[in-house]
What does this fold into?
Amino acid sequence: MPSADDLPHLLACVTLRDRAAFERLYRATCGHLFSVSFRILRNESRADEVLQEAYVNIWHNAGAYNAGAGTPMTWMINIVRNKSIDLLRSRRTESETTSPLDDDTPEIADDAAGDPQQLMSNSLVKARIDDCMSALPAVQRQALALAYYRGMVHTDIAQALSAPLGTAKGWVRRGLEQLRSCLEAAGVSGL
Amino acid sequence: MNYLLPERLDRLAREYALGTLAGRARRRFERVLAASPAATMAVQTWQQRLAVLDGANVALAPPVGNWTAIQQRLFPPAQAPAAAPRGFLQGLLGVLSGRALGGVLAGVIACAVFLRLQPGVAGLETQGDKLPESYVGLLQDASGKPVVVASSRRHGDVLTVKVLQPIAIPPGRVAELWALPKNGAPFPVGTVPAKGSARIELYEPSEKVFSSVQDLGVTFEPAQAAPGAKPSTPFVLTGHCVKVW
It folds into this structure.
């Protein structure tokens, strides 16, 4: 994660149309946000496109950021995640109804996007809730990781883990419930 | 369905934040979010919880040119020359290839020729000889006479309207400009003056407002239409909204 210290100030300056602050915000966050988009889309040019749209959106809507609703990085991550998810699914709808113009082979090795389970494991350690989350069976953590890091919907997860749809839904739900209770037990404020 | 029942809201908020809420359910919930602070707060709470899953994210450098492209989209005249657009005729043909409508062709070409000759009327002056990437509409009356040119740079947030022939707006009415999406209800864009020109500030970037808009239209309304309003009278001017790039 980039240093979060300056981000609220930079975002406030962007609200005032400060281009230098906008560039500093970009330099501080682009690598992280590109990674978020790439691990969902697994296509460099589409992640590039999403990142451009996201920063255009951030420039125009910096004033909509509400400090009470999370950090600037959380706000920006969710702009990127939502745009990536929308693009992923619009392309899927397109490919169901039209002939493909290009193949969906990732342009960068999957390794660059990070293994979802490893990413989740490292993140839980960093948040110091790995012990608590280990109460969850591995397959349930995996279901949660595929949803969050890959933008998969329940049917994708069921297929990827060779499970009935209802089971996959239950795994994701229990994963989220466990995450909530682990954060509460860890005393993470505001959650 | 009452989306705001606590248990239902929590389920929808967590599925939306995670991304597993999909398709029409996702779009419906986004409309709820736009109107409900409680729903927004529920989603933000889940987004904060899920943020811990990004704690060990490894940064990846974006492709070379990403920052330049963002600058070009946001600040084309000041930061850098606009990206070289495709040939103007090629752009037009790309738009028209799927539409075998003679009227569209005639209207668009008339509009394009008009703008090529007088780009200033629509606020489309450029440093060179090429039109910038823009959304353009030429609205005609029932007799086919061009009355209004509307244009907005693709990545801009202002729509410029130029009235070519005075509009006889009935007393106590306003001429409301509507965007008509390919699949969806018309939505109001702003009001058009009886003569002269006007700048309409868009509530979102042009690309987002007009990307799925196929036609534009003008009705005479009792007052300026509020967001979400629908036309209450028949269209007096209509025309196609064309992507010029």
